[in-house]
Amino acid sequence: xxxxxxxxxxxxxxxxxxxxxxxxxxxxxxxxxxxxxxxxxxxxxxxxxxxxxxxxxxxxxxxxxxxxxxxxxxxxxxxxxxxxxxxxxxxxxxxxxxxxxxxxxxxxxxxxxxxxxxxxxxxxxxxxxxxxxxxxxxxxxxxxxxxxxxxxxxxxxxxxxxxxxxxxxxxxxxxxxxxxxxxxxxxxxxxxxxxxxxxxxxxxxxxxxxxxxxxxxxxxxxxxxxxxxxxxxxxxxxxxxxxxxxxxxxxxxxxxxxxxxxxxxxxxxxxxxxxxxxxxxxxxxxxxxxxxxxxxxxxxxxxxxxxxxxxxxxxxxxxxxxxxxxxxxxxxxxxxxxxxxxxxxxxxxxxxxxxxxxxxxxxxxxxxxxxxxxxxxxxxxxxxxxxxxxxxxxxxxxxxxxxxxxxxxxxxxxxxxxxxxxxxxxxxxxxxxxxxxxxxxxxxxxxxxxxxxxxxxxxxxxxx
Amino acid sequence: xxxxxxxxxxxxxxxxxxxxxxxxxxxxxxxxxxxxxxxxxxxxxxxxxxxxxxxxxxxxxxxxxxxxxxxxxxxxxxxxxxxxxxxxxxxxxxxxxxxxxxxxxxxxxxxxxxxxxxxxxxxxxxxxxxxxxxxxxxxxxxxxxxxxxxxxxxxxxxxxxxxxxxxxxxxxxxxxxxxxxxxxxxxxxxxxxxxxxxxxxxxxxxxxxxxxxxxxxxxxxxxxxxxxxxxxxxxxxxxxxxxxxxxxxxxxxxxxxxxxxxxxxxxxxxxxxxxxxxxxxxxxxxxxxxxxxxxxxxxxxxxxxxxxxxxxxxxxxxxxxxxxxxxxxxxxxxxxxxxxxxxxxxxxxxxxxxxxxxxxxxxxxxxxxxxxxxxxxxxxxxxxxxxxxxxxxxxxxxxxxxxxxxxxxxxxxxxxxxxxxxxxxxxxxxxxxxxxxxxxxxxxxxxxxxxxxxxxxxxxxxxxxxxxxxxxxxxxxxxxxxxxxxxxxxxxxxxxxxxxxxxxxxxxxx
Lengths: 464, 510
Prior knowledge:
The complex is a heterodimer. Chain A is mainly α. Chain A has a domain at 438-464. Chain A has helices at residues 2-7, 16-42, 49-70, 78-100, 104-125, 136-148, 175-199, 217-233, 236-254, 258-277, 279-289, 300-312, 335-368, 372-396, 414-435, 441-446, 449-459, and strands at residues 156-159, 162-168, 171-173, 203-205, 208-210. In chain A, a hairpin with a 2-residue loop joins strand 4 and strand 5 (208-210). The two termini of chain A are 17 Å apart. Chain B is of the alpha+beta class. In chain B, 39% of the residues lie in helices and 17% in strands. In chain B, the strands form seven sheets. In chain B, strands 3-2-1-6-16-17 form a six-stranded mixed sheet. In chain B, strand 1 (55-57) and strand 2 (60-67) form a beta hairpin. The chains are: A mainly alpha, B alpha+beta. The interface between A and B is large, with 47 and 36 residues.
């Protein structure tokens, strides 16, 4: 016991009370914004404010209670942050609904409900994240199947040139969003087993250890898959996301920057070839370089978004006082332009900080996680999140060429929202495992064997 | 694995910092640029939704916002009586674009100008929608009317031309007319299909009704440029108004076989004539020789002192600089680069040919500077900026562009010569009883042959100011096309003189 407490003298506090307090703040943001939209557009508080606010509160409280019961040591910041983002997203979508006379906000609320249900289910079904390691290859195959689905005639739908949707009756679904989570699990499961082989020193070229030729297999395969997505589905964003994700996880697993060099070369090589061959890649780059060259044609969307951001200035026009509907697809990829226009730079900064917090908390969970698989999954999810935010927000603010991805938790879109709630559930599970005090093994020997068995199984099913 | 995870954290931090820096750039640094971009329909749409200030001439609005009950709250209206007359100055307000004063004074008219901050604050506290401020123009309604109707009636329905009148002492633009013009109401309509149809029709019209010729059309100034040549010769001390100057039936400048003649004006034929006679009869042989004697550098210096090779008008966008050539391109196979004008070329610039080009505004500035004892004032169109409640916020102070474009003495001598030109010479159509008028005609040959030889009709110019002893108005008239007039009728004095006279009378009758 003495050795244990010396080793693990620090015990994380549960901090569920702090989480609840932060959740109240998140609800104030979400419901307050919803009320402000009504005031700004119609001059009165929306009539369904009570019902809407009540439902949002119910969802958030349900999530909180689930965490309290099944993951009591989970990180207390993640849930409030995503609740705030989701609430703000709903209010903005409601705002766009009023401008465009659509009804997307209520659909999005339904998707959020499904997301929270899956969030709770994930936490309950998954008492230990290492269970996921069993599904390394299953999830890999499923991910590839999901990615291929939109290519099947009759099932897949092409929207805005990208073939990444499947339609089932009235529902359309973006399987790539789910594949994202599955790929993280696959990579983590694969890398945690093969990391030693991949980490073997190869040739050393100018301060950088390059990997052995035969170990290049997986990275080349991933490169081909990413290029396949780019070529066959014309989905620049997902292609970049998957490849970047794989590189980061490979680097973290092997601790060898050489992989980054190889990966970067492959990426730029592929990008250069894609730029030369595919007109849609070229036109994206052209728009990025000078959106005003064809301000009424190909550059229209980006130009309108930039005007929107500028129109908002530092503090925004106020909810309901701008013209976000001028930006095509403002409710999905370009939702940040609506935030920027009506709530200003201040709110955009706040949103970016919230995203930054999610990434930071995920990486923190990775750092303190006690097993390699958990570290890799948490890092992978953090990387997916960070890359997606960078690619989409960088695209709409003209930092990088536009690629087309959803803004996590803000954008309208069921698949994305549900997948992101599951990501948060997995992150909470990993952080719960990491922050949970170690079972006192020294004390176990002295105690009743029955108690010991019960206790160890309950807390750490596979811990040895 | 923690070391690479830390590296990944730092990488992610940089990603987020890059996003934050970029969004700050877009929303803070670039926002003014985007928010004043005329292609930004957001800005125009917002300005359609609130009461935009008036543009006034005297006390009458030439552009105002009226309540409308379609999808925007206010419609921009240009009162029928003067809509075409004032269009080159007011411009038009359209969803997504503005021109003219509507564009250059947009901040005042929308109420976003910092000068209107207090008014805006008061409106905000009172719970009223902020109203835009008013812009009062320097234009004189009667002079503008005389200029526009003069062009319309003289040139005929297919004509093209422009008139600019300036108050010499201040630089206030009293008239700025361009013909043909357009009705801005057709473009400001909220029916976007109609508006764009109207725009396309105007844009496709060969006569370019949307063009403000006063500051955008440059033509050979022809003999009106002899004011500049004479100014350079007198400033240089070579001649005085009372001296005799070289003339002749024809003149062959050094280094060329090309002859410069006087188009049959026999008074120019003696070898020596008085300076007054040379000006009265616009003797090409005289002014070509003066230009050669002064030399290209001093000619250019004098032209630039009057404002050539630069722009001066701040209140409207799009002024093109008038040109006195700064050099001649040398072909690449002869070494490339540019060289100074040859004497033969200088001789041609002296009579407003070669590559000398001027806008009507520029010739009005030359005339105004001579009328104002050599002092060149910056032309301006915005007299005052007012709040919506007509309280004056700012009155434009006249600004001197060149304290002495020519000396007061030179200006006085030039005035004598120009007065004689109206009294006894080619500029007589501008004479006003009991008023001393100074003026000069210009008929600039286009192409190589004259009317009589079946050539294109010339460009006709007329510049004048009055009263000569203490000028209140200086006018420049430019006639680009008058296909309804016979070719040999198109001459500065015959067509331009009466228009200039009408504009001067309109100002002087006050």
